[in-house]
Write a structure and sequence with these properties.
binds magnesium ion; binds adenosine monophosphate; 3 domains; single chain
């Protein structure tokens, strides 16, 4: 929802209204249930002249906030860093991590404030500000986030949710004129995001040498989000077994998440262990990219000079990251063979989810072992011809009669035709009627994804104070499968004269 109404220029003068009055109450389970060593109470910095550029009513509804609440000055105050959840002091949490394969030590929320958690109609949600100022964990950083990267996080959260991929969600985007120095001068913005929990692998890595804290963290995470992993009546004696069960569940969730990323051509860009969610959510959108022209080793992050986080490396990187998580659990007395056993199902869970997804994308009722060849030939074809990832899948559903629009995606239609013949021979063995198949394929192969150039257009308009392009994109991304007449440009790859968008870690 675009906000066109002028916002108050100073939110710090506003009384913190009780936005969440009448609900089961706001709190901060992270700070209430974990020792003080896990966080620092620190106030977000207020943005000056904040402007609520955009808000997502569907995400607000998860918190029990209706349209009227989103117009309240208290809502802007909350999202601009000056408001508070009733009775809750914001905190920044500490974590560590491996960045680009190297142990980086303490990181933590260098520019994020956890405002607390609230009860929504279907469960509790943590509310976090990103770009809300320095914290004790900021290291050399300024605590800011620029409008450009905030728009990207805001849009990507919706894009992934619209695709049915687990993700943190973005509630609101607040812009300001506060200057921020990056490669060029930019302005500051804050994204308010929500998730059941923002706990990362990095939180566990931080306590890898401290059994007392690791036990507290394990108990906290298991009690809230993984009650089925709890083994036995004795928390102390049973903790190693509980930790292994937790690891097994995080392994399965992460494996399924990787399959989902691969199937939509999503590259995260910075799969450091501190950007991996314990809940299996896509977390921390930075220099991510949805591929246009397919390249198996596509690297979306310009800072990733060695291609560590290339598209085709993502599942293996996730496995590597899970192994770092496993190592951090050894302090609880978990034995290496038990941890290895918990990690072992990654590949089979990933492949099962990936093949099931490929079968759906190809419109097949099942995936047979011999289909692996067809799948491999598909990727090879797309890679060699740099065909558009999204449209190649989407138009496949229309190749039954006139295959021209699909063949047009390939520089060498001859070899595409050869693949298509194999595919159609396979379809002939599949009992589903073609109209049903097409309808099913159109429900899993999106037409609209968040292409970099589309995000860039929305950013450029937002930098001029115009959120209308964000609004239009958000609408398409909410239902990326339904074709909207007149929306062709949102489905198209960038034209040859579109300036390439370079995204890096600088944000
Ligand atoms: P990222 O690579 O964005 O996941 O960030 C890694 C760590 O650096 C996280 O702990 C962030 O909070 C922190 N960080 C990133 N950018 C900034 C910034 N501008 N100021 C302070 N901390 C930052
Ligand atoms: Mg991060």
């Amino acid at each position: 929802m675009r906000r066109t109404d002028p916002s108050p220029s100073r939110t710090d003068a506003l009384a913190p209204d009780d936005l969440f009055a009448g609900q089961a109450g706001a709190g901060c389970s992270f700070a209430q249930e974990l020792p003080p060593s896990f966080y620092t109470r620190v106030a977000p910095r207020h943005l000056r002249e904040p402007r609520l550029l955009h808000v997502n009513p569907a995400v607000a509804a998860l918190l029990g906030l209706d349209a009227a609440a989103l117009d309240a000055p208290a809502f802007l105050a909350l999202c601009a860093g000056s408001g508070r959840l009733p009775g809750v002091e914001p905190v920044a949490t500490v974590y560590s991590g491996h960045q680009f394969g190297v142990w980086a030590g303490q990181l933590g929320d260098g520019r994020a404030h956890l405002l607390g958690d609230v009860a929504g109609p279907q469960g509790r949600w943590e509310i976090q500000l990103k770009g809300s100022g320095r914290t004790p964990y900021s290291r050399m950083g300024d605590g800011w986030a620029v409008l450009r990267s905030s728009v990207r996080e805001y849009l990507a959260s919706q894009a992934m949710d619209g695709l049915g991929i687990p993700t943190t969600q973005a509630l609101a985007l607040v812009a300001s004129r506060d200057p921020v120095i990056r490669e060029t001068p930019e302005t500051a913005a804050v994204v308010t995001r929500i998730a059941p929990s923002f706990v990362r692998f990095g939180h566990f890595e931080h306590w890898a040498h401290s059994a007392i804290e690791q036990a507290a963290l394990l108990d906290y995470v298991v009690a809230h989000w993984f009650p089925d992993c709890r083994v036995g009546p004795s928390a102390d004696a049973d903790r190693p077994a509980t930790a292994c069960r937790l690891l097994a569940e995080v392994t399965r969730r992460t494996a399924r998440l990787m399959a989902q990323w691969q199937l939509v051509g999503f590259c995260h860009g910075v799969m450091n262990t501190d950007n991996m969610s314990m809940l299996g959510l896509t977390l921390d959108y930075g220099p991510y990219g949805f591929m246009d022209a397919f390249q198996a080793n596509h690297v979306c992050n310009h800072s990733d000079t060695l291609g560590r986080y290339a598209w085709n490396a993502q599942p293996a990187v996730a496995q590597w990251n899970l192994t770092r998580l496993a190592e951090s659990l050894q302090v609880l007395g978990c034995l290496a063979p038990d941890l290895e056993a918990a990690l072992a199902p990654f590949e089979s869970v990933f492949l099962q989810a990936y093949y099931a997804g490929m079968a759906q994308k190809f419109g097949l009722s099942d995936w047979r072992p011999e289909d692996a060849d067809l799948g491999n030939a598909w990727w090879k074809l797309l890679h060699e011809q740099r065909a558009d990832f999204t449209l190649a899948f989407r138009r496949l559903a229309d190749t039954d009669g006139d295959a021209r629009s699909w063949l047009d995606l390939f520089a060498d239609p001859q070899s595409a035709r050869q693949w298509l013949d194999r595919y159609q021979a396979r379809l002939a063995q599949d009992p589903r009627p073609q109209p049903d198949r097409k309808a099913a394929m159109d429900r899993v192969n999106p037409l609209y994804v968040l292409r970099n150039h589309l995000a860039q257009q929305a950013i450029q308009a937002a930098q001029q104070g115009d959120a209308s392009e964000i609004d239009r994109l958000m609408e398409r991304l909410q239902d990326p499968y339904a074709q909207r007449p007149g929306d062709e440009r949102y489905a198209q790859p960038p034209t040859a004269d579109t300036p390439p968008v370079a995204v890096s870690c600088s944000s």
